[in-house]
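Q: Hi! First time doing this. I have a protein sequence and I read that you can turn it into a structure. Is that right? Here it is:
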Amino acid sequence: MEIGINGSLAHVLTNDNMSTANKSKCLKEISKENLKDTLKITTVAAGAAGIGALASKSNRFVDVLKNVRTLVGNALSRVSIDDKNLKELIKNSNLYKNFNALPKPAKAAIATGSAILALILPSAAISSTSKLGYIEGKHENK
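A: Yes, that's right. Below is the predicted 3D structure, encoded as structure tokens:
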């Protein structure tokens, strides 16, 4: 019986084609790869956030952020949950109020870092899955 996708913890643990020693080695290698990928993604997002903070001095960049904020606000205003407008719910939340109170460079850094993460994470997940499946295959008994 095998459970999960190739490279997942559950799949490795239930893989009948691997010895206990190979399962241990495989899980160590998978953990190492996951840590390396997490560090890469974090570095890219932090770098983008830093660039966003520096770029907040540029009026053009600030205008782009304002346009994005307007587009998101317009999209949220068309959504209702329990007859309550989503834009208003978010606007009245403490998180939004705290975010809005931050200085412009901090808001730009958060917005830029979040956008980069939103773009990177789906493709990183696909890449990670295929890489981890490959690692598992290397440790299977031939």
